[in-house]
Amino acid sequence: MGQNQIGSVRVQQQPTANPAVSQPFPLGAGRDTFGLGFQITGAHSDTLARGPGSMSWAGIFNTEFWIDPNRGIGGVLLMQYLPFYDAAAIDTLQGFERRVYQGLAN
Predict the structure, then answer these.
(1) Which one, of 64, 85, 88, 80, lies nearest residue 22 by Cα?
(2) Cα first-last separation, the chain
(3) 44 Cβ partners below 8 Å, 6+ apart?
(4) Which residues 6+ apart lie within 8 Å of 105 measured at CB?
(5) What is the mean pLDDT of the chain?
(6) Percent of the chain that is helix, strand, coil (3-state, to 5)
(7) What is the distance, to the nearest Å, from the Cα of residue 4 to the centroid of all Cα atoms in its chain?
(8) What percent of the chain has pLDDT over 70?
(9) Is 7 exposed, middle or buried (CB count within 10 Å of its CB: 0-12, 13-18, 19+)?
(10) pTM of the predicted model, to two decimals?
(11) Which end of the chain, N or C, is less surrounded by CB atoms within 10 Å?
(12) Contacts by 85-88 with C-beta closer than 8 Å and gap 24+?
């Protein structure tokens, strides 16, 4: 499930058709790949705390999860509002990830 199934193709940013429902998504556009059911995090130096090879998925109401097999951890963040991928949802996700990984370091 966590192996790249799309070769050299990379996840592309999806534009919004209706800004009230969704902002452009996903994080990792241009870098990540897909396995069988998960977006797979590629090498990065951005604000994601999860490491390369992590598997993730997001739902339309800003439900998010990731599995980091290299660190033996996963996270689930469930929000229930629109628009999908708005700035507040992404800030919340990234803050949650940073705190989870900071907790591992302590």
Answers:
(1) 85
(2) 31
(3) 28, 31, 52
(4) none
(5) 93
(6) 20, 25, 60
(7) 16
(8) 95
(9) exposed
(10) 0.89
(11) C
(12) 85/22, 85/23, 85/24, 85/25, 85/26, 85/58, 86/23, 86/62, 87/23
Kindly list the strands in the beta sheet with 33-34, ordered across the sheet, starting from the edge strand earlier in the chain: 33-34, 39-40, 55-59, 63-68, 73-78
Nearest CA to 93 out of 80, 103, 78 is that of 78
For 76, list phi and psi in degrees, rounded to 5: -130, 130
- Residue 4's Cβ-side half-sphere holds a number of Cα atoms within 13 Å equal to 13
- Sites in the chain below the pLDDT cut of 50: none
Q: What is the dihedral of CA 95, 73, 42, 27, to 10 degrees?
A: -30
Contact 27, 4 (CB under 8 A): no
50-89 b/e with 16+ CB inside 10 Å = b? bbebbbbebeeebebebbbeeeebebebebeebbbbbeeb
Please tell me whether the peptide bond between 26 and the residue prior to it is cis, using omega within 30 degrees of 0.
yes
Residue carrying structure tokens 């996700």:
93
